[in-house]
Specification:
mainly alpha; 8 helices; globular
Length: about 150
Amino acid sequence: MAYTVRKQDVWEVFADFEKAKNRKQRIEILKKNENNMPLRDVLQGAFDERIQWNLPPGTPPYTPQQTDAPTPSTLLKEHLKFKYFVKGVRESEDLLPVRRERLFIDILEVIDARDAEAVVAMINKKPPVKGLTEKIVKEALPDLIP
């Protein structure tokens, strides 16, 4: 019988990152999760200056999921919708601003509250977790940000 290893949620990777004792351990945690596409998207969205968000700055009015309660969806599924929020991308530009913002709020409301916080930090171009810097991301994942 074959077993598959569940990918960590983005918030779980960030929790491990915060618990790390030093820079080397933090870099190893990011390297270990280099194939976690939602994590890569959040890191790139937060630190890559080429990506500009087609959303108003700040925290949108949304109702976060209960912590540790089952969520209707995960960032593993929802990160594919990030294209609807990037300036210059056709899918984003074709949406009316109110529709784009509603879609963003819908995503925040169906994923884990801790992932939602990371996504809000991402669109505000802020580090999604304490201690995370562009320099650490570039060192751990050199192919992610130019």
